[in-house]
Amino acid sequence: MSKHILGLTSKEDGVVSKALKTIHDKGTQASIRPLLEAFATRKDDALREEMLGMLSSMKLSAAEDIFLEALTDPKLAHVAGDILQCLWSCGFMCDGRLALVVEVACQGDFKQAMEGATLLEQVETVQDEKDLLEAQVIVGEAMGDDSKKDIAPFLEGMKAHLAMLQDTLM
């Protein structure tokens, strides 16, 4: 593992700051997952915000798959809302993975549901009918779950948007 990636988890803020600068200037797709993991374990501070800013402005197309894969990692479940935010901020459409996005949105708190709904709303067309149908089932099940009342407005929005996407298939 390269020195700048190892520096992300240093206890010394100066080392972390230098690692972030190196990744900003010379980072590759190999830097994305370690940066995401460092963000997930870092206490709330300015360096953590800088990490989120970098993750939210990724221009590498490989970042989409890395973020989507991270949504399935239980060790990163506590930052799933942030990962959804990064996907949205980067402009990724999550084609073929809408069911995953919807599932994560439905599993989380208010922020996670909001970020998932916001990400879903930017999708204008779908190619994968099976993925779309699975996403609709997930939202439908969540709407029937009394423990999801706090996120009901987001569930309703996702349901409506998924129905609109269904209409684009025909």
Order of helices and strands: HHHHHHHHHH
Largest sheet: none
Total number of strands:
0
General form: elongated
> Mind telling me the C-alpha Rg?
17 Å
Mean pLDDT, as a whole number? 94
Number of domains: 2
Instruction: Indicate the percent of residues in helices.
Output: 55-70%
Q: Termini separation (Å)?
A: 49 Å
Helix tally? 10
- Beta content comes to under 5%
Structural class: mainly alpha
Describe what is shown at a glance.
By secondary structure, the chain is mostly helical. It contains ten helices and no strands. It folds into two domains: 92 residues; 77 residues.
Walk me through what this model shows:
The chain folds into two domains: 1-92; 94-170. The protein has 170 residues and is an all-alpha fold. The protein contains ten helices and no strands.
List the helices and strands and how they pair.
Layout: H1 3-7, H2 13-26, H3 32-41, H4 46-55, H5 62-70, H6 80-89, H7 98-107, H8 110-121, H9 129-143, H10 152-169
Helix pairs in contact: 2-4, 3-4, 5-6, 6-8, 7-8, 7-9, 8-10, 9-10
